[in-house]
Amino acid sequence: MGGWNPAGYRVQGKELTIFELPDGYRVVLFLYLVEGYDHDEISEILGITNATSRTQYHNARKQLAKKLNELKAVS
Fold first, then answer.
1. DSSP structural state of residue 44
2. Within a domain: residue 27?
3. How many domains, in total, are found in the chain?
4. pLDDT band at 1 (very low <50, low <70, confident <90, very high)
């Protein structure tokens, strides 16, 4: 498995991108991991609560992990 890059992950020739995530998950994940904003800043930028930012981030990571595991199982 490769490391993080803004486009996504590559697992044995198959690409999993953050663009497959729902909009809310994708935006929060990008702002947090790529842009380096914390959850307080993200909540201000997007007009959501800190708790919503944290939940979106957690769910994005969980969904990416699930998709990565599915790709590994198929490979």
1. H
2. yes
3. 1
4. very low
CA quadruple 21, 27, 55, 35: dihedral, nearest 10: 130
Q: Which domain holds residue 59?
A: 22-64
What's phi and psi for 10, nearest 5 deg?
A: -120, 125
Phi, psi for residue 28 in degrees, rounded to 5: -65, -45
Quote the CA–CA distance of 55 and 50 in Å, as a whole number. 9
Task: Say if pTM beats, i.e. exceeds, 0.90.
Answer: no
Instruction: Please tell me what DSSP assigns to residue 19.
Output: G
Report the relative pairing of strands 8-11 and 14-17 from DSSP bridges: antiparallel
Q: In this predicted model, what pLDDT tens digit does every residue of 46-61 receive, in sequence order?
A: 999 999 999 999 999 9
Task: Round to whole Å and give the CA distance between 47 and 17.
Answer: 25
- What's the CA gap between 22 and 15, in Å, rounded? 17
